[in-house]
Write a structure and sequence with these properties.
Lyase, Ornithine Decarboxylase, Chain A, domain 1; 20 strands; about 375 residues; TIM Barrel
Amino acid sequence: MSERRRAVARIDDGAFRRNVARVAGEAPRTELCAVVKADGYGHGAVGSARAALAGGATWLAVATAAEAISIRDAGIDARLIVLGALSDSELPEALACDVDLVVWREHQVARIAALGGARLHVKLDTGMGRLGTRDAEEASRVATAAATTATTTLAGLMTHFATADERGDRFFSEQLERFRAWALPLRERHPQALLHAANSAALLRDPASHFDLVRPGVALYGMDPFGEDPDEHRLEPVLRVESYVAEVKPCVAGESVGYGRRFVAGGATWVATVPVGYGDGWRRALSGVGHVLVRGRRFPIVGAVSMDNVTLDLGPDGAGVLVGDEAVLLGSQGAERILAEHVAEEIGTINYEVTCGLGSRIPRVHEGVG
């Protein structure tokens, strides 16, 4: 036990590479841009980027200037696109990293040109309602500006889907048609511009969304973009979060556990403490509904999840659990497993948020398996 870390997140880079190859097989005639924003969806951006490129990705995507800097500082020189909005102070930082940028207003093109220029991707908002212009004519003017300004290049035409992960939803098809109606004629005038729209869900859902470049994120990490079961898409979960049992003690009827006495034993039982809590990103909402694996069994979290600990009800016989036993919060142990999708369902969120929320106190260890 003395050699155990308090907690560690192990990332199987072999599984990551296989997921890249699996997803790329769905779109064999396109380039693949691996999205590694938000610290690689909580898996570690630099390690994930390297695994993605080793698996066949040719582009990487981030959301911020700081994320671009971290990729370049690691010595990774792949084509890199910043998908998010950049403030006036962030823009020069991003440009110094030799990145592609997303634009949707003519003044953005002028500002970037004044700072030395870049490769630009024009974003039409076909229904997401966030970044991009809803006006196809304006988007076309921005594309023309990007193509004709001396220091900029029109590198791409893009959009983003709002409901690709909702099976059978018709809005996805409406967005796709809006994008096609705008982008295909425009690309005839600018044949060098790559068309791209598909996230993980769109990539797996409809080949018509693939165009020249696909931008998968969550599927590469072995999570189901539809929030159900990664096995359905032959995806391998990449992340395993493990800790250990720090304490085991008896709890008689009437005794309580944790802040607010949210758990009071109704009869004799045993309680184990695992030193991971909301300070590590293991959400307080998991109080009374979450589970942890110990000795190949799934034990319920009881009492309030605190900043540094969770407590488990082991039952009246203690299940043979001992101090020092491995505890798995995400991943497999024996025949049991806990997926990000399971945790998300327990607290009414999405698998993305479960992994993105893991805190910096849990070190990421990339392991080149397979």
